[in-house]
């Protein structure tokens, strides 16, 4: 799973790093040389569609899709576990809906031979096919999660269902941040370079 | 059942499901799809398909992952950490000492990091041991950190503003520029409070003066973040770039500084990509869901009916805005700020537009309401972050008590913006391009 996440992260980063450089070059060329690369805006749109679909899966794998734990945390274990099951099913249904929407869009674009209203006039079926494929990965991951949650519920493993599918709390996020702060030695570097100059 | 009753009960069910801990984005998406399909059948799914593609391929929204990535670069490369040293040296001598440092540093740090948790955690980790060592009262110290952390969504670049601009079809560049003066004024108001309350209490912690030469030398730590901020905001203000382009320029500048400082490693890049993908995925799914919900509200006529219903009360602009402050204050106590914003804009934006409120001004108003939501219990994210990093093991009520003056300042400041809207609208009117 870790490897899969690393591949997704690398793809996400590559998409937006490439886009940043292209947009920066286009902006500077436009302002300094009065010349445009044409189509960078369009590329930005497709990058978002594909990058966002990748990011949905990343957020799913790290339990980052936002949930409010105000009531949840105060409930006994069984209702809490059942809410976790409902949350996994809700996410799976959302992913299925998005894939259905992407399917409709692609079908329309193929049927009507739609092209982008841009200088490139890209046939929309190409970017939308990639979009649909990446969203399908999100859907499979979300369905896998929901099935795992259903399996745990069906076999009566309430504790495990509660632990594995609970919302990511502020405490968890804070823990990750503090580990990173420690890793990059922020406090130490500041403490030794002037932060303690004021006794 | 009237459209108003459908709208209000739908909103209550949606908020109820969110409060039970179901994923915010899924609740919005499924409520929007469900409502639309009850009214229009399968045809609604086809309409929402074009909305989903339109939203997810809208170049303006590309600014979100780019700004999140930029923030990650500045944060993980340690560029932002070093700011604290400078602020401590320059502001430590003021009455209130390091509390000013907390506010100033949070403002600048949050302007680049974009994450409230990362801001409060980083500044808090660095500041709290020092504050405790020097005998600062814990309530005041925690309050200043939690309040300072909220400034990031008002001081541009701000993801909340990009989402507002995209949902209401307003210029994100203008919203960013509009956030500068209120952001600076609110920062100064927090610092003024620290100054006056310290003088009034007579409990001043006196710090040794850092020599001028040392203070000047430390200023170099501000160079890189200020250049990145200058590129992003300058390109917007002078009409050189759109919000997405300015974000891309910022990313390239940050990459350059990382490479120059020897920080551009594969490990660091992967860490930044992972973190920004997770954050962007969470935000963008909420945004797509909000657009589908928005479509359901407008096609079913619920939004319009609600606008007519509210305007029929005959409330003035001032009364409506005060009522909205109360509405957001209560909602912000229970909801996460991003979801609160996207769930309510389709309902409140048409109402205030009908009253002739400037849309850019209203964007800043909503963002300040979100800031309030970050520090109002029981669901005030910054409260718990600051509580989680304090060195002593005191009660969370210390943080809540410490935050009260800042929450009051924010409300008074919002009333000031209602009375003098030019504070928000003046600078965007001067923009070029």
Q: How is this structure best summarized?
A:
The complex is a heterodimer of chains A (199) and B (433). With 199 residues, chain A is mostly helical.
Task: Explain this structure.
The complex is a heterodimer of chains A (199) and B (433). Chain A is built from 7 helices and no strands. By secondary structure, chain B is mainly alpha-helical. Chains A and B meet through helix 1, helix 2, helix 3, helix 4 and helix 6 of A and helix 2, helix 3, helix 4, helix 5 and helix 7 of B.
By secondary-structure content and strand pairing, the structural class of chain A works out as: mainly alpha
Shape of chain B: globular
The first-to-last residue Cα distance of chain A is 49 Å
Query: How would you sum up the global shape of chain A?
Result: flat
Oligomer: heterodimer
Structural class of chain B: mainly alpha
Alpha-carbon distance between the termini of chain B?
49 Å
Work out the largest interface and the residue count of each chain.
A-B, 88 and 96 residues
| Number of helical segments with 4 or more residues of chain A | 7
What is the residue-averaged pLDDT of chain B? 88
Tell me roughly what share of residues is in helical segments of chain B.
over 70%
Q: Helix and strand succession of chain A? A: HHHHHHH
Characterize the largest beta sheet of chain B: strand count, sense, and whether it forms a barrel: none
Helix content of chain A: over 70%
Portion in strands of chain B? under 5%
**Element-by-element helix/strand order of chain B:** HHHHHHHHHHHHHHHHHHHHH
Would you count the extended β strands of chain A for me? 0
């Amino acid at each position: 799973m870790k490897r899969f996440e690393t591949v997704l992260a690398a793809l996400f980063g590559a998409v937006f790093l490439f886009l940043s450089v292209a947009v920066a070059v286009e902006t500077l060329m436009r302002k300094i040389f009065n010349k445009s690369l044409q189509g960078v805006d369009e590329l930005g749109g497709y990058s978002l569609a594909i990058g966002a679909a990748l990011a949905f899966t990343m957020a799913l794998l790290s339990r980052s899709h936002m949930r409010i734990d105000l009531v949840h945390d105060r409930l006994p274990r069984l209702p809490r576990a059942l809410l976790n099951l409902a949350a996994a099913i809700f996410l799976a249904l959302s992913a299925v809906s998005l894939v259905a929407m992407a399917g409709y869009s692609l079908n329309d674009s193929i049927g009507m031979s739609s092209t982008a209203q841009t200088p490139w006039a890209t046939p929309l079926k190409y970017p939308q096919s990639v979009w649909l494929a990446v969203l399908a990965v999100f859907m499979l991951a979300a369905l896998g999660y929901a099935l795992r949650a259903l399996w745990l519920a069906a076999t009566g493993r309430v504790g495990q269902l509660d632990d594995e599918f609970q919302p990511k709390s502020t405490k968890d996020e804070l823990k990750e941040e503090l580990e990173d702060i420690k890793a990059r030695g922020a406090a130490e570097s500041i403490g030794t370079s002037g932060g303690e100059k004021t006794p | 059942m009237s459209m108003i009753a459908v709208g209000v009960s739908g909103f209550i069910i949606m908020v109820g499901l969110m409060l039970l801990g179901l994923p915010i984005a899924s609740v919005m998406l499924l409520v929007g799809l469900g409502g639309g399909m009850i009214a229009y059948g399968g045809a609604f799914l086809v309409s929402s398909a074009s909305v989903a593609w339109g939203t997810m391929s809208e170049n303006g929204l590309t600014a979100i992952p780019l700004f999140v990535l930029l923030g990650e670069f500045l944060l993980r490369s340690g560029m932002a950490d070093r700011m604290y040293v400078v602020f401590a040296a320059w502001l430590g001598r003021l009455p209130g000492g390091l509390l000013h440092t907390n506010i100033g540093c949070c403002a600048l740090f949050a302007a680049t990091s974009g994450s409230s948790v990362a801001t409060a955690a980083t500044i808090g980790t660095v500041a709290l041991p020092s504050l405790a060592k020097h005998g600062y009262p814990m309530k005041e110290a925690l309050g200043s950190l939690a309040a300072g952390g909220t400034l990031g969504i008002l001081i541009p670049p701000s993801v909340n503003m990009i989402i507002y601009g995209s949902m209401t079809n307003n210029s994100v560049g203008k919203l960013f520029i509009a956030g500068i003066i209120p952001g600076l004024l609110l920062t100064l108001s927090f610092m003024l409070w620290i100054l006056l309350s310290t003088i009034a209490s007579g409990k001043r912690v006196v710090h040794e003066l850092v020599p001028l030469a040392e203070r000047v030398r430390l200023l170099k730590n501000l160079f890189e973040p200020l250049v990145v901020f200058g590129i992003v905001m300058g390109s917007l203000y002078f009409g050189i770039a759109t919000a997405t382009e300015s974000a891309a320029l910022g990313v390239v500048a940050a990459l350059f500084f990382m490479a120059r400082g020897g920080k551009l490693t594969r490990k660091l890049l992967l860490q930044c990509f992972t973190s920004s993908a997770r954050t962007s995925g969470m935000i963008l799914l909420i945004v797509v869901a909000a657009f589908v919900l928005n479509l359901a509200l407008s096609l079913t006529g619920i939004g319009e009916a609600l606008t007519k219903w509210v305007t029929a009360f005959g409330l003035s602009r001032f009364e409506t805005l005060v009522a909205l402050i109360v509405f957001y204050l209560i909602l912000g106590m229970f909801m996460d700020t991003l979801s609160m914003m996207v769930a309510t804009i389709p309902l409140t934006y048409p109402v205030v537009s009908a009253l002739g409120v400037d849309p850019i001004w209203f964007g800043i108003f909503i963002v300040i309401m979100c800031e309030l939501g970050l520090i109002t219990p029981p669901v005030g994210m910054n409260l718990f972050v600051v509580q989680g990093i304090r060195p002593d093991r005191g009660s969370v009520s210390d943080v809540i008590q410490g935050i009260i003056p800042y929450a009051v300042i924010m409300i008074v400041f919002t009333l000031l913006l209602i009375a003098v809207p030019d504070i928000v609208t003046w600078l965007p009117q001067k923009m070029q391009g």
